[in-house]
Write a structure and sequence with these properties.
The protein is α+β, with helices and mostly antiparallel strands and about 270 residues long. It has 2 domains: about 1-115, Helix Hairpins (Orthogonal Bundle), CATH 1.10.287.130; about 120-270, Histidine kinase-like ATPase, C-terminal domain (Heat Shock Protein 90, 2-Layer Sandwich). It has 8 helices and 7 strands, in the order ααβααββαββαααββ. The termini are far apart.
Length: about 270
């Protein structure tokens, strides 16, 4: 009886330990299955995002190209005899070609910022800012807008020149694009915080609603009043700026309201 009791107790203990092992194994498998389902969902979301991106890209390319083909078909087919009308149609074609070129440029810029190797350098921040703002003099003059710089901080910092130039270029381009002619100046100012540099680009443009601000980093997104103000725009500019800011180790914050202009604040680490 003692032997039977001992064997029964031992077997019971073994069965209990086995049950505990199987229970822990089941819990581990359930956790791994949950991880696999989550990973699968992420892959599906990435696939959907890629599909949406390709669809939007194809649409944005097809629109100007279709317009150009239609106009050139009309000209080549001899359906228009008036020389002035033909010149006007060719000018429209040139405009649409420039739209397609700008879109392809933005696509390449976005792809590079997502995948390229960064090359940090010890650079003069003010010099880099002036190099970018100087490229907008003609565009600003055509709209009757000045670009004012306030660069009291003589600062060097270690950052990637291309990412910085790309971020600032798109912020200024956005400010000019969505400002009315002869509006107030676009202001570019630099300040140094305790651990970061602060670059501010402000304008007197059409502004951005609170709901739209959160969507600015999204690719192909254009605010409703932006589309109404100008048909020109790929919807990639600010998403490129956000990506470039990330490559600088910083970020961008937007403060705006519809009809009241916008202020974009780019920050990145202050590295001596």
């Amino acid at each position: 009886m003692l032997t039977t009791a001992y064997v029964s107790s031992a077997v019971g203990g073994m069965l209990k330990r086995r049950e505990q092992y199987l229970s822990s194994l089941h819990a581990e498998l359930a956790g791994r299955n949950a991880d696999l389902r989550a990973a699968n969902e992420r892959l599906l979301e990435i696939d959907r995002t890629k599909t949406d991106f390709m669809r939007m890209a194809a649409h944005e390319i097809r629109s100007p190209v279709s317009s150009m083909v239609s106009l050139m078909h009309t000209i080549i087919g001899g359906y228009v005899d008036d020389k002035d009308k033909i010149i006007d149609m060719v000018k429209i074609c040139m405009g649409r070609a420039n739209d397609a070129l700008a879109f392809s440029r933005d696509l390449l810029s976005l792809a590079r910022e997502k995948s390229r190797d960064l090359e940090p350098e010890n650079l003069d921040v003010c010099k880099e800012i002036l190099a970018v703002t100087g490229g907008f003099e003609n565009d600003a003059r055509e709209k009757g807008i000045s670009i004012e710089t306030d660069l009291p901080v003589q600062q060097r910092s270690i950052f990637d020149r291309e990412s910085f130039a790309l971020a600032l270029w798109h912020l200024i381009d956005n400010a000019l694009r969505y400002s009315h002619e002869n509006a107030g100046p676009v202001k570019v100012s630099l300040a140094a915080g305790v651990e970061k540099l602060i670059l501010t680009v402000s304008d007197h443009g059409i502004g951005i609603s609170e709901d739209d601000i959160a969507r600015l980093p999204q690719e192909f997104f254009r605010a409703g009043n932006g589309r109404a103000h100008s048909h020109v725009g790929t919807g990639l500019g600010l998403s490129i700026a956000w990506r470039a800011a990330k490559n600088l180790g910083g970020g961008i914050v937007c403060r705006s309201a519809a009809g009241e202009g916008s202020t974009f604040v780019l920050t990145w680490p202050l590295l001596q």
